[in-house]
Amino acid sequence: MDDGTIKKLAYNKFYNLHRNDKQAAFQEFSNSQVKIAEFIVEIENRKPIRIINEFYNYYFFDKEGRIDEEGLRVQLDLLSNSFFKEDDDKISIKGNVIDATNIFLERRIETQYKWHPDEDMKNRLHEKIFR
Question: Which residues are 120's β-sheet partners?
């Protein structure tokens, strides 16, 4: 949250949020953009032992506190379009025209849909996982 508050979600709550389950709505997120930190964690004996991967994205919520479907669809379309591009595909030359669409696409994803935590926030998030 913008005030630095960290809210930990169980996987099933996060999953239900993505399914747009009415039970998984967060009224406190109504009509807002929220920073989400998502972690893939290796578990041993029901305890987290290491972080395999981490993602930092903005999520947009509708008036009922559910993930905004249209915003999510646009975000997923942008990500899927950029995901399969090779480095060689970022700029293409067609005659006298240089097509840098993919570079602008990556910039849009970085500025509108991703966030980058500072070291303090990253440490606080990691502490939540291993606590």
Answer: none
